[in-house]
Amino acid sequence: MKMTKFLPLAVAAVALPSMGLAQDAEVPAAVPTDVVFILNSLLFLIGGFLVFWMAAGFAMLEAGLVRSKNVTMQLTKNVALYSLASIFYYLIGYNLMYPLGSWAIEGYFSALFPAVGVLEPVGVAADAVDDYGYASTASDFFFQLMFCATTASIVSGTLAERIKLWPFLIFVIILTSIIYPLQASWKWGGGFLDEMGFLDFAGSTVVHSVGGWAALVGAIILGPRLGKYDSTGKIHPMPGSNLALATLGTFILWLGWFGFNGGSQLAMGSIGDVADVSRIFANTNTAAAGGAITALILTQVLYKKPDLTMVLNGALAGLVSITAEPLTPSLGMATLIGAIGGVIVVFTVPMLDKMKIDDVVGAIPVHLIAGIWGTIAVVLTNPDASLMVQLTSIVIVGAFVVVVSAIVWFILKATMGLRVSEETEINGLDMAEMGMEAYPEFSKG
Prior knowledge:
Largest sheet: 2 strands, antiparallel
CATH architecture: Orthogonal Bundle
Order of helices and strands: EEHHHHHHHHHHHHHH
Number of domains: 1
Structural class: mainly alpha
Strand content: under 5%
Number of helices: 14
Radius of gyration: 22 Å
Number of strands: 2
CATH class: Mainly Alpha
CATH superfamily: Ammonium transporter AmtB like domains
Distance between the termini: 43 Å
Protein backbone atom coordinates (compact mmCIF):
# COMPACT_ATOMS: atom_id res chain seq x y z
CA MET A 1 0.00 0.00 0.00
CA LYS A 2 1.28 3.43 -0.80
CA MET A 3 0.41 4.92 2.61
CA THR A 4 1.40 3.89 6.11
CA LYS A 5 -1.95 3.22 7.73
CA PHE A 6 -1.26 2.72 11.39
CA LEU A 7 -0.79 6.47 11.83
CA PRO A 8 -3.75 8.88 12.01
CA LEU A 9 -4.42 10.17 8.51
CA ALA A 10 -5.69 13.64 7.72
CA VAL A 11 -8.23 14.08 4.94
CA ALA A 12 -7.23 16.79 2.49
CA ALA A 13 -9.88 19.05 0.98
CA VAL A 14 -9.94 18.61 -2.77
CA ALA A 15 -11.15 21.30 -5.16
CA LEU A 16 -13.84 20.28 -7.65
CA PRO A 17 -15.18 22.40 -10.50
CA SER A 18 -18.71 23.59 -9.89
CA MET A 19 -21.53 22.53 -12.17
CA GLY A 20 -23.43 25.79 -11.60
CA LEU A 21 -23.84 28.65 -14.13
CA ALA A 22 -23.71 31.54 -11.69
CA GLN A 23 -20.46 33.45 -11.61
CA ASP A 24 -19.98 32.95 -7.87
CA ALA A 25 -20.45 29.20 -8.35
CA GLU A 26 -17.05 29.01 -10.03
CA VAL A 27 -15.35 29.08 -6.63
CA PRO A 28 -13.94 25.57 -5.98
CA ALA A 29 -15.81 23.55 -3.38
CA ALA A 30 -14.12 21.17 -0.95
CA VAL A 31 -15.23 17.57 -0.88
CA PRO A 32 -17.04 17.04 2.44
CA THR A 33 -15.18 14.89 4.93
CA ASP A 34 -18.03 12.42 5.20
CA VAL A 35 -18.08 11.94 1.41
CA VAL A 36 -14.35 11.22 1.40
CA PHE A 37 -14.89 8.75 4.24
CA ILE A 38 -17.65 7.00 2.28
CA LEU A 39 -15.67 6.81 -0.96
CA ASN A 40 -12.50 5.56 0.72
CA SER A 41 -14.41 2.91 2.64
CA LEU A 42 -16.19 1.90 -0.56
CA LEU A 43 -12.86 1.41 -2.33
CA PHE A 44 -11.68 -0.88 0.47
CA LEU A 45 -14.89 -2.89 0.36
CA ILE A 46 -14.96 -3.28 -3.44
CA GLY A 47 -11.24 -4.05 -3.53
CA GLY A 48 -11.72 -6.49 -0.67
CA PHE A 49 -14.44 -8.57 -2.26
CA LEU A 50 -12.51 -8.66 -5.54
CA VAL A 51 -9.48 -10.02 -3.68
CA PHE A 52 -11.76 -12.45 -1.85
CA TRP A 53 -12.80 -13.79 -5.25
CA MET A 54 -9.12 -14.66 -5.77
CA ALA A 55 -9.66 -17.41 -3.18
CA ALA A 56 -11.98 -19.03 -5.71
CA GLY A 57 -9.33 -18.47 -8.37
CA PHE A 58 -6.66 -20.25 -6.37
CA ALA A 59 -9.07 -23.10 -5.63
CA MET A 60 -9.96 -23.58 -9.30
CA LEU A 61 -6.37 -23.20 -10.50
CA GLU A 62 -5.11 -25.79 -8.02
CA ALA A 63 -8.04 -28.16 -8.60
CA GLY A 64 -7.25 -28.08 -12.30
CA LEU A 65 -3.50 -28.60 -11.95
CA VAL A 66 -3.54 -31.51 -9.50
CA ARG A 67 -4.48 -35.05 -10.53
CA SER A 68 -8.12 -36.06 -10.20
CA LYS A 69 -7.43 -38.27 -7.18
CA ASN A 70 -6.36 -35.22 -5.13
CA VAL A 71 -8.91 -32.56 -6.14
CA THR A 72 -11.20 -32.85 -3.11
CA MET A 73 -8.25 -32.43 -0.75
CA GLN A 74 -7.10 -29.33 -2.59
CA LEU A 75 -10.54 -27.74 -2.50
CA THR A 76 -10.86 -28.52 1.21
CA LYS A 77 -7.50 -26.90 1.92
CA ASN A 78 -8.52 -23.72 0.12
CA VAL A 79 -11.80 -23.32 1.98
CA ALA A 80 -10.14 -24.13 5.31
CA LEU A 81 -7.11 -21.87 4.86
CA TYR A 82 -9.28 -18.86 4.00
CA SER A 83 -11.51 -19.50 7.00
CA LEU A 84 -8.55 -19.93 9.36
CA ALA A 85 -6.93 -16.77 8.01
CA SER A 86 -10.16 -14.87 8.68
CA ILE A 87 -10.22 -15.96 12.31
CA PHE A 88 -6.54 -15.75 13.22
CA TYR A 89 -5.85 -12.50 11.41
CA TYR A 90 -8.69 -11.09 13.52
CA LEU A 91 -7.41 -12.62 16.77
CA ILE A 92 -3.73 -11.76 16.38
CA GLY A 93 -2.52 -10.77 12.93
CA TYR A 94 -4.23 -7.42 12.26
CA ASN A 95 -3.07 -5.87 15.49
CA LEU A 96 0.40 -7.36 15.10
CA MET A 97 0.54 -5.72 11.69
CA TYR A 98 -0.53 -2.30 13.00
CA PRO A 99 0.79 -2.16 16.57
CA LEU A 100 -0.36 0.71 18.78
CA GLY A 101 -2.03 2.44 15.86
CA SER A 102 -5.40 4.06 15.41
CA TRP A 103 -6.25 1.37 12.85
CA ALA A 104 -5.68 -1.48 15.33
CA ILE A 105 -8.91 -3.16 16.36
CA GLU A 106 -7.95 -2.99 20.04
CA GLY A 107 -5.34 -0.28 19.97
CA TYR A 108 -2.89 -0.84 22.84
CA PHE A 109 -0.60 -3.76 23.68
CA SER A 110 -2.36 -5.28 20.71
CA ALA A 111 0.81 -6.89 19.39
CA LEU A 112 1.12 -8.93 22.57
CA PHE A 113 -2.38 -10.25 23.14
CA PRO A 114 -5.23 -11.52 20.97
CA ALA A 115 -7.61 -8.75 20.08
CA VAL A 116 -11.23 -8.37 20.93
CA GLY A 117 -12.74 -6.83 17.83
CA VAL A 118 -13.93 -3.26 18.27
CA LEU A 119 -15.47 -1.85 15.09
CA GLU A 120 -17.33 1.42 14.68
CA PRO A 121 -20.68 1.49 16.49
CA VAL A 122 -23.77 0.62 14.50
CA GLY A 123 -25.02 3.65 12.60
CA VAL A 124 -22.06 5.91 13.33
CA ALA A 125 -23.04 9.56 12.97
CA ALA A 126 -21.57 11.81 10.28
CA ASP A 127 -20.26 14.27 12.87
CA ALA A 128 -18.15 11.46 14.39
CA VAL A 129 -16.22 10.75 11.19
CA ASP A 130 -13.11 12.51 12.46
CA ASP A 131 -12.90 10.00 15.30
CA TYR A 132 -12.52 7.06 12.90
CA GLY A 133 -9.84 8.17 10.45
CA TYR A 134 -10.26 8.52 6.71
CA ALA A 135 -12.14 5.22 6.19
CA SER A 136 -13.94 2.74 8.40
CA THR A 137 -11.89 0.33 10.49
CA ALA A 138 -14.14 -2.51 9.33
CA SER A 139 -13.45 -1.77 5.66
CA ASP A 140 -9.71 -1.65 6.25
CA PHE A 141 -9.73 -4.87 8.28
CA PHE A 142 -11.72 -6.63 5.57
CA PHE A 143 -9.36 -5.42 2.84
CA GLN A 144 -6.19 -6.30 4.71
CA LEU A 145 -7.50 -9.76 5.62
CA MET A 146 -7.78 -10.65 1.95
CA PHE A 147 -4.07 -10.04 1.42
CA CYS A 148 -3.22 -12.22 4.40
CA ALA A 149 -5.36 -15.09 3.07
CA THR A 150 -3.76 -14.76 -0.36
CA THR A 151 -0.35 -15.44 1.17
CA ALA A 152 -1.59 -18.76 2.55
CA SER A 153 -3.17 -19.73 -0.78
CA ILE A 154 0.22 -19.51 -2.46
CA VAL A 155 1.64 -22.22 -0.19
CA SER A 156 -1.26 -24.58 -0.78
CA GLY A 157 -0.62 -25.31 -4.45
CA THR A 158 3.10 -25.94 -4.20
CA LEU A 159 2.74 -28.66 -1.57
CA ALA A 160 -0.23 -30.40 -3.14
CA GLU A 161 -0.68 -34.15 -3.53
CA ARG A 162 1.55 -35.31 -0.67
CA ILE A 163 1.07 -33.17 2.46
CA LYS A 164 -1.29 -34.09 5.30
CA LEU A 165 -4.24 -31.79 5.89
CA TRP A 166 -3.85 -30.89 9.57
CA PRO A 167 -0.12 -30.08 9.67
CA PHE A 168 -0.68 -27.83 6.65
CA LEU A 169 -3.55 -26.03 8.40
CA ILE A 170 -1.46 -25.52 11.54
CA PHE A 171 1.22 -23.91 9.38
CA VAL A 172 -1.48 -21.69 7.88
CA ILE A 173 -2.47 -20.52 11.36
CA ILE A 174 1.12 -19.52 12.17
CA LEU A 175 1.62 -17.93 8.75
CA THR A 176 -1.50 -15.79 8.90
CA SER A 177 -1.35 -14.83 12.57
CA ILE A 178 2.40 -14.21 12.99
CA ILE A 179 4.72 -14.61 9.98
CA TYR A 180 2.81 -12.54 7.43
CA PRO A 181 1.56 -9.79 9.78
CA LEU A 182 4.93 -9.29 11.48
CA GLN A 183 6.91 -8.72 8.30
CA ALA A 184 4.03 -6.69 6.81
CA SER A 185 4.23 -4.37 9.81
CA TRP A 186 7.83 -3.55 8.83
CA LYS A 187 6.48 -1.90 5.67
CA TRP A 188 2.74 -1.27 5.89
CA GLY A 189 2.64 -0.81 9.66
CA GLY A 190 5.19 2.01 9.52
CA GLY A 191 8.11 -0.17 10.59
CA PHE A 192 11.80 0.00 9.83
CA LEU A 193 11.56 -1.05 6.17
CA ASP A 194 9.12 1.76 5.55
CA GLU A 195 11.45 4.21 7.30
CA MET A 196 14.32 2.97 5.08
CA GLY A 197 12.29 3.97 2.03
CA PHE A 198 11.26 0.49 0.87
CA LEU A 199 8.54 0.71 -1.80
CA ASP A 200 6.06 -2.13 -2.34
CA PHE A 201 2.74 -0.68 -3.46
CA ALA A 202 0.54 -3.77 -3.21
CA GLY A 203 2.83 -6.58 -2.12
CA SER A 204 5.16 -8.19 -4.65
CA THR A 205 7.40 -8.84 -1.64
CA VAL A 206 5.12 -8.32 1.37
CA VAL A 207 2.50 -10.78 0.07
CA HIS A 208 3.73 -12.80 -2.90
CA SER A 209 7.35 -13.49 -2.10
CA VAL A 210 6.40 -14.29 1.49
CA GLY A 211 4.05 -17.01 0.29
CA GLY A 212 6.70 -18.11 -2.21
CA TRP A 213 9.47 -18.40 0.39
CA ALA A 214 7.22 -20.38 2.74
CA ALA A 215 6.23 -22.66 -0.14
CA LEU A 216 9.84 -23.17 -1.25
CA VAL A 217 11.01 -24.17 2.22
CA GLY A 218 8.02 -26.48 2.63
CA ALA A 219 8.66 -28.13 -0.75
CA ILE A 220 12.32 -28.79 0.09
CA ILE A 221 11.52 -30.27 3.51
CA LEU A 222 8.53 -32.26 2.24
CA GLY A 223 10.27 -33.64 -0.83
CA PRO A 224 8.88 -34.34 -4.31
CA ARG A 225 5.89 -36.49 -5.18
CA LEU A 226 6.49 -40.20 -5.68
CA GLY A 227 7.57 -40.90 -9.23
CA LYS A 228 8.15 -37.28 -10.20
CA TYR A 229 11.92 -37.78 -10.55
CA ASP A 230 13.76 -41.07 -11.00
CA SER A 231 17.27 -42.02 -9.91
CA THR A 232 18.73 -40.97 -13.25
CA GLY A 233 17.33 -37.48 -12.90
CA LYS A 234 14.62 -37.97 -15.51
CA ILE A 235 11.50 -35.91 -14.96
CA HIS A 236 8.12 -37.61 -15.27
CA PRO A 237 5.34 -35.13 -16.03
CA MET A 238 2.17 -35.42 -13.95
CA PRO A 239 -0.54 -33.59 -15.93
CA GLY A 240 -3.35 -31.88 -14.09
CA SER A 241 -6.90 -33.16 -14.09
CA ASN A 242 -8.76 -30.26 -15.68
CA LEU A 243 -7.15 -27.45 -17.68
CA ALA A 244 -10.55 -25.81 -18.11
CA LEU A 245 -10.72 -25.30 -14.34
CA ALA A 246 -7.13 -24.05 -14.29
CA THR A 247 -7.95 -21.51 -17.00
CA LEU A 248 -11.08 -20.39 -15.16
CA GLY A 249 -9.00 -20.00 -12.01
CA THR A 250 -6.49 -17.83 -13.85
CA PHE A 251 -9.18 -15.50 -15.18
CA ILE A 252 -10.71 -15.24 -11.69
CA LEU A 253 -7.30 -14.31 -10.28
CA TRP A 254 -6.79 -11.79 -13.08
CA LEU A 255 -10.12 -10.16 -12.18
CA GLY A 256 -9.36 -10.19 -8.47
CA TRP A 257 -6.03 -8.48 -9.07
CA PHE A 258 -7.81 -5.25 -10.03
CA GLY A 259 -8.98 -5.09 -6.42
CA PHE A 260 -5.58 -6.22 -5.16
CA ASN A 261 -3.68 -3.42 -6.87
CA GLY A 262 -6.41 -0.83 -7.38
CA GLY A 263 -7.61 -0.98 -3.80
CA SER A 264 -4.04 -0.42 -2.61
CA GLN A 265 -4.34 3.20 -3.73
CA LEU A 266 -6.14 3.41 -0.36
CA ALA A 267 -8.13 6.50 -1.33
CA MET A 268 -10.94 7.41 -3.71
CA GLY A 269 -12.00 10.77 -2.32
CA SER A 270 -10.45 12.99 -4.98
CA ILE A 271 -10.17 13.31 -8.74
CA GLY A 272 -6.47 12.46 -8.51
CA ASP A 273 -7.12 9.27 -6.54
CA VAL A 274 -9.78 8.00 -8.92
CA ALA A 275 -7.55 8.75 -11.91
CA ASP A 276 -4.72 6.85 -10.20
CA VAL A 277 -6.96 3.85 -9.53
CA SER A 278 -7.90 3.85 -13.21
CA ARG A 279 -4.23 4.00 -14.19
CA ILE A 280 -3.47 1.07 -11.86
CA PHE A 281 -6.24 -1.03 -13.43
CA ALA A 282 -4.88 -0.41 -16.91
CA ASN A 283 -1.28 -1.20 -15.95
CA THR A 284 -2.30 -4.31 -14.03
CA ASN A 285 -4.21 -5.67 -17.01
CA THR A 286 -1.49 -5.04 -19.58
CA ALA A 287 1.21 -6.58 -17.38
CA ALA A 288 -0.81 -9.81 -17.22
CA ALA A 289 -1.25 -9.73 -20.99
CA GLY A 290 2.48 -9.19 -21.47
CA GLY A 291 3.30 -12.18 -19.28
CA ALA A 292 0.81 -14.46 -21.04
CA ILE A 293 1.88 -13.58 -24.59
CA THR A 294 5.57 -13.87 -23.74
CA ALA A 295 5.04 -17.35 -22.28
CA LEU A 296 2.98 -18.30 -25.34
CA ILE A 297 5.71 -17.25 -27.78
CA LEU A 298 8.58 -18.66 -25.73
CA THR A 299 7.05 -22.10 -25.33
CA GLN A 300 6.31 -22.22 -29.05
CA VAL A 301 9.95 -21.39 -29.80
CA LEU A 302 11.47 -23.68 -27.17
CA TYR A 303 9.13 -26.69 -27.33
CA LYS A 304 7.64 -26.29 -30.84
CA LYS A 305 4.19 -26.21 -29.24
CA PRO A 306 2.62 -23.63 -26.94
CA ASP A 307 2.08 -24.78 -23.34
CA LEU A 308 -1.22 -23.67 -21.80
CA THR A 309 -0.05 -24.12 -18.21
CA MET A 310 2.95 -21.89 -18.93
CA VAL A 311 0.68 -19.29 -20.53
CA LEU A 312 -1.59 -19.29 -17.47
CA ASN A 313 1.33 -18.92 -15.10
CA GLY A 314 2.86 -16.32 -17.40
CA ALA A 315 -0.22 -14.15 -16.94
CA LEU A 316 -0.05 -14.61 -13.17
CA ALA A 317 3.67 -13.83 -13.12
CA GLY A 318 2.96 -10.64 -15.03
CA LEU A 319 0.40 -9.70 -12.39
CA VAL A 320 2.83 -10.40 -9.54
CA SER A 321 5.57 -8.45 -11.32
CA ILE A 322 3.49 -5.25 -11.59
CA THR A 323 2.13 -5.46 -8.05
CA ALA A 324 5.08 -3.69 -6.39
CA GLU A 325 4.50 -0.57 -8.53
CA PRO A 326 1.36 -0.53 -10.68
CA LEU A 327 0.89 3.26 -10.58
CA THR A 328 3.97 4.96 -12.03
CA PRO A 329 4.74 2.88 -15.18
CA SER A 330 3.44 3.78 -18.62
CA LEU A 331 1.35 1.17 -20.39
CA GLY A 332 4.36 0.16 -22.45
CA MET A 333 6.64 -0.21 -19.44
CA ALA A 334 3.96 -2.14 -17.52
CA THR A 335 3.66 -4.54 -20.45
CA LEU A 336 7.43 -5.03 -20.47
CA ILE A 337 7.57 -5.61 -16.70
CA GLY A 338 4.85 -8.25 -17.03
CA ALA A 339 6.54 -9.80 -20.05
CA ILE A 340 9.72 -10.38 -18.06
CA GLY A 341 7.54 -12.16 -15.51
CA GLY A 342 6.46 -14.50 -18.30
CA VAL A 343 10.10 -15.16 -19.18
CA ILE A 344 10.82 -15.95 -15.53
CA VAL A 345 8.12 -18.63 -15.46
CA VAL A 346 9.21 -20.37 -18.65
CA PHE A 347 12.81 -20.69 -17.50
CA THR A 348 12.33 -21.16 -13.74
CA VAL A 349 9.89 -24.08 -13.92
CA PRO A 350 12.39 -26.45 -15.60
CA MET A 351 15.18 -25.10 -13.39
CA LEU A 352 13.27 -26.17 -10.27
CA ASP A 353 12.71 -29.58 -11.80
CA LYS A 354 16.44 -29.96 -12.38
CA MET A 355 16.92 -29.18 -8.69
CA LYS A 356 14.22 -31.78 -7.86
CA ILE A 357 12.06 -29.17 -6.15
CA ASP A 358 8.49 -30.29 -6.89
CA ASP A 359 6.16 -27.31 -7.23
CA VAL A 360 2.85 -28.75 -8.39
CA VAL A 361 1.24 -25.53 -9.67
CA GLY A 362 4.30 -23.36 -10.39
CA ALA A 363 3.72 -21.02 -7.46
CA ILE A 364 7.42 -20.52 -6.69
CA PRO A 365 8.30 -19.05 -10.11
CA VAL A 366 5.10 -17.00 -10.20
CA HIS A 367 5.01 -15.60 -6.68
CA LEU A 368 8.59 -15.76 -5.41
CA ILE A 369 10.85 -15.18 -8.41
CA ALA A 370 8.48 -12.82 -10.22
CA GLY A 371 7.79 -11.11 -6.88
CA ILE A 372 11.50 -10.42 -6.47
CA TRP A 373 11.70 -9.13 -10.04
CA GLY A 374 8.68 -6.86 -9.53
CA THR A 375 10.16 -5.39 -6.36
CA ILE A 376 13.40 -4.59 -8.17
CA ALA A 377 11.53 -3.20 -11.19
CA VAL A 378 10.11 -0.40 -9.02
CA VAL A 379 13.36 1.52 -9.56
CA LEU A 380 12.66 1.64 -13.31
CA THR A 381 9.61 3.88 -12.99
CA ASN A 382 9.48 5.36 -9.48
CA PRO A 383 12.15 8.05 -8.90
CA ASP A 384 11.77 7.67 -5.13
CA ALA A 385 12.96 4.05 -5.22
CA SER A 386 16.48 3.03 -4.23
CA LEU A 387 17.86 -0.19 -5.72
CA MET A 388 19.92 -0.89 -2.61
CA VAL A 389 16.92 -0.39 -0.32
CA GLN A 390 14.75 -2.63 -2.51
CA LEU A 391 17.38 -5.39 -2.56
CA THR A 392 18.05 -5.10 1.17
CA SER A 393 14.35 -5.36 1.96
CA ILE A 394 13.96 -8.42 -0.27
CA VAL A 395 16.81 -10.14 1.60
CA ILE A 396 15.50 -9.18 5.06
CA VAL A 397 11.96 -10.39 4.38
CA GLY A 398 13.22 -13.54 2.63
CA ALA A 399 15.63 -14.46 5.44
CA PHE A 400 12.96 -13.96 8.08
CA VAL A 401 10.34 -16.05 6.30
CA VAL A 402 12.79 -18.83 5.39
CA VAL A 403 14.12 -19.20 8.93
CA VAL A 404 10.77 -19.06 10.71
CA SER A 405 9.02 -21.26 8.12
CA ALA A 406 11.80 -23.86 8.34
CA ILE A 407 11.49 -23.99 12.12
CA VAL A 408 7.73 -24.44 11.94
CA TRP A 409 7.89 -27.05 9.15
CA PHE A 410 10.57 -29.07 11.01
CA ILE A 411 8.59 -28.97 14.26
CA LEU A 412 5.46 -30.17 12.45
CA LYS A 413 7.45 -32.89 10.71
CA ALA A 414 8.91 -34.12 14.02
CA THR A 415 5.64 -34.04 15.96
CA MET A 416 2.82 -34.81 13.52
CA GLY A 417 4.56 -35.82 10.34
CA LEU A 418 4.07 -33.77 7.20
CA ARG A 419 3.72 -36.38 4.53
CA VAL A 420 1.03 -38.97 3.87
CA SER A 421 2.02 -42.62 3.51
CA GLU A 422 3.19 -44.00 0.17
CA GLU A 423 0.00 -46.00 -0.16
CA THR A 424 -2.12 -42.92 0.44
CA GLU A 425 -0.14 -40.89 -2.07
CA ILE A 426 -0.43 -43.60 -4.72
CA ASN A 427 -4.16 -44.13 -4.20
CA GLY A 428 -4.89 -40.43 -3.85
CA LEU A 429 -5.50 -38.18 -0.86
CA ASP A 430 -9.17 -37.77 -1.65
CA MET A 431 -10.25 -41.23 -0.52
CA ALA A 432 -7.60 -41.82 2.12
CA GLU A 433 -7.75 -38.43 3.84
CA MET A 434 -11.22 -37.16 2.87
CA GLY A 435 -13.27 -40.27 2.11
CA MET A 436 -14.73 -38.77 -1.05
CA GLU A 437 -13.70 -38.09 -4.62
CA ALA A 438 -14.23 -35.01 -6.76
CA TYR A 439 -14.88 -37.18 -9.84
CA PRO A 440 -16.29 -40.46 -8.49
CA GLU A 441 -17.63 -41.54 -11.88
CA PHE A 442 -14.18 -41.52 -13.46
CA SER A 443 -11.15 -43.67 -12.85
CA LYS A 444 -8.33 -42.12 -10.90
CA GLY A 445 -5.81 -40.08 -12.89
